[in-house]
Amino acid sequence: MRLVLTGNQRMKKTLFLKTELGQIVVPKLENTNWPGLWAFDSWLKKYFKTHIEKAPKENWARLSKRCKVQTLIEENGTYRVEE
User: Fold this and answer.
1) How many CA atoms lie within 13 A of 47 on its CB side?
2) In the chain, which end has fewer C-beta atoms inside a 10 angstrom radius, N or C?
């Protein structure tokens, strides 16, 4: 997850993909403390409302070649998906 602060706006972004079975997968955060991971999980569940799998770098690279990768963006409390 990336947090971008621009003026009065707060923007959060992350990559995600949906597998053929409908499972949501995001890249696993590295070098993040427990509260940061909890906040990331809460943020994702707010939009997807389901269990989200986290893939390590190697698995993410493989999955992203097979499935369409999209970007989830939250800006000022509004979610949107970019392709």
Assistant:
1) 20
2) C
